[in-house]
Structures are given as structure tokens and as C-alpha cells.
Design a protein that fits this description.
- The protein is α/β, with parallel strands linked by helices.
- It has 3 domains: 83 residues, Winged helix-like DNA-binding domain superfamily/Winged helix DNA-binding domain (Arc Repressor Mutant, subunit A), CATH 1.10.10.10; 102 residues, Periplasmic binding protein-like II (D-Maltodextrin-Binding Protein, domain 2), CATH 3.40.190; 93 residues, D-Maltodextrin-Binding Protein, domain 2.
- Strands 4-3-5-12-6 form a 5-stranded mixed beta sheet, with helices on one face. A 5-stranded mixed beta sheet has the order 9-8-10-7-11, sandwiched between helices. A two-stranded antiparallel sheet has the order 1-2.
- α8 links the parallel β8 and β9.
- α1 crosses α2 and α6 packs across α11.
- The longest helix has 18 residues.
Length: 291
């Protein structure tokens, strides 16, 4: 017995006619007839007598009606409870982002969201490559990229700027008469070779001038702060370090767009939708980003 057919049977019982059932279920007349025929075939009985004034239950139909008493109401009640649970902001939300954004930008926003929605448990997945939102490794991604994946949906919240920085202590070691040719450099390693600052360094800085390489932008900030040399650093991270000073204005060619992304199938999950909107609102007004 196909359970989908039962709603058509119950609708005819309730309305007393095929046309009434079709109107109730927002389907055409032939669909109701086909479903009734399917149910009667699967059960091997006739459920209705087709009379000029409408449909009347047979003895078998009456038995089936008695057996289904309250089932429709229970199903509708269960649906309402499940929908109500989903519409409430509770449960787990998994966020994937980079160590740079987690440490330098996102933590205050995550704390503010959790204070507003204490029934949501946040799980942070820190990774410098995209976790698969399709396979539910994460629900929401916050990523710096100028080419977001085509299979995700989301909104751009701003731009992360990159500038040239050095520690004040390092600059003192160079003396008064120094120029860019005297700099030692902190650079990304090969795992970050796709970044615009890595491309700029390959084109403009001889390899022998590289004093330190790191596979994380957070590590680069720390290395510059410790005096290894100058570096192209993300402004939100570098500006928060009082021992660092900017040597040049941020270059637009090194700008990176910041996106809040999710999978299309998750957009209507209440906690995911609320979390993504909260991130968008907070980051869209974050003074550390360019808007």
C-alpha cells in the first residue's frame, strides 16, 4: 500500500466527491481517480461505490477509514512540530574559515551571535582550503576569495586590504640611510603561492632577499613583528599590532573580497539562515574591512 495514496482516499472521504478532493489537494480530477485506483488495486478491494450523487464508502472502505482514524491529524501535528523546531534558532552550526579570519576578524562576531542565540552550538572548522559544504563538512563558509565556487551561494561583505609592514625594531636595525633594496622579506610559502601577494613577491623580490616563509598569514604577521623583515600583511591583522608600522598604503591590486557562503540546500534551515545573516550584517559594517 502506497502511503501517498491514502491522503487521496481520506480527502474523498472528507469531501464526499472526487472534485471536492481534487480542490482540497490542489490537483486535477484525473490524479485523484488514478490514486484511488492504485490504492484499490494494491488492497484488492473496492473502497467506494460510485453513485450519481457522489462517492459512498463500501464495507471495506469503512474498515479502512476506521483503521486510519486520527492518522492524518497525527501526521499534520508531527509536521507542525518539526517545522516549528526548524523555525526556532537552535541546534549546531558548523563554520569553516581560515586561521587568519578566525583570529583576526570573526571571533567577536561569533561571540555576539552566541550571546543572542544561546541555544545554538557553534563549531569552528579552521582550514585554509574550502571544506566541502556539499558533503556537510560545514554549513557556512567565510572566505577571502575573488573567485567564489560556483556551487555555493552567498554575499560579499567587504574587501580585505593588504599593505607593506615592518616592525619598528626592525627598521631601527637598518639605520637612517636605507631603501627598499635593503629590506629582508617575510613571504608565503608554496602552499600559499596562489595569493596575490605571493605573485607580487615572485615578480618583484629576488629569492635571496626572502628571510622567512610561512604557510599561514597569521604566522607571517608574527614573523614580521619579531623582526625577520618586512612583509605584505593583511591590514586587519597588522593594524592590530602596535609594534608594526605601515610602510606604504594598501595596494588595490592585492585586495581580496570577503564572502559569506553556504550551500543552496541549507538556505532555508533557520539556524543557518540566521547565522549567515548575522555574519553578513556584522561584517558589512566592520571598520577593519573596506566597503
Amino acid at each position: 500500500m502506497n502511503w501517498d495514496d491514502l491522503q487521496y482516499f481520506l480527502a474523498v472521504c472528507r469531501q464526499g466527491s472526487v472534485s471536492g478532493a481534487a480542490s482540497l489537494l490542489h490537483v486535477n480530477h484525473s490524479t485523484v481517480l488514478r490514486r484511488l485506483a492504485s490504492l484499490e488495486s494494491s488492497l484488492g478491494v473496492t473502497l467506494f461505490d460510485r453513485l450519481p450523487g457522489g462517492y459512498a464508502l463500501t464495507s471495506a472502505g469503512n474498515q479502512l477509514t476506521e483503521g486510519l482514524a486520527g492518522v492524518a491529524e497525527q501526521i499534520e501535528s508531527a509536521q507542525r512540530r518539526l517545522m516549528g523546531a526548524d523555525l526556532s534558532i537552535q541546534g549546531t552550526v558548523r563554520l569553516t574559515t581560515t586561521d587568519t579570519l578566525a583570529q583576526g576578524v570573526l571571533m567577536p562576531t561569533l561571540a555576539a551571535f552566541q550571546r543572542e542565540h544561546p541555544q545554538v552550538q557553534l563549531q569552528l572548522v579552521v582550514h585554509n582550503s574550502f571544506s566541502s559544504l556539499t558533503q556537510r563538512e560545514a554549513d557556512v563558509a567565510v572566505r577571502g576569495t575573488n573567485r567564489p565556487p560556483d556551487n555555493l551561494v552567498g554575499r560579499r561583505v567587504g574587501t580585505i586590504r593588504t599593505g607593506l609592514y615592518a616592525s619598528r625594531a626592525y627598521l631601527k636595525t637598518l639605520g637612517r640611510r636605507f631603501g627598499p633594496d635593503d629590506y629582508r622579506w617575510v613571504a608565503p610559502d608554496e602552499s600559499l603561492s596562489h595569493l596575490e601577494q605571493a605573485k607580487w613577491l615572485r615578480a618583484n623580490v629576488p629569492a635571496e632577499r626572502i628571510a622567512f616563509r610561512a604557510d599561514t598569514l597569521v604566522g607571517m604577521v608574527e614573523a614580521v613583528a619579531q623582526g625577520f623583515g618586512v612583509g605584505l600583511l593583511l591590514c586587519p591583522l597588522a593594524d592590530a599590532r602596535p609594534e608594526l608600522t605601515a610602510l606604504a598604503p594598501p595596494s588595490p591590486s592585492l585586495d581580496t573580497q570577503l564572502w559569506v557562503l553556504t550551500h543552496p540546500d541549507l538556505r532555508q534551515v533557520a539556524r543557518v539562515r540566521a547565522f549567515a545573516q548575522f555574519l553578513f550584517d556584522a561584517l558589512s559594517s566592520d571598520p577593519r574591512l573596506q566597503h
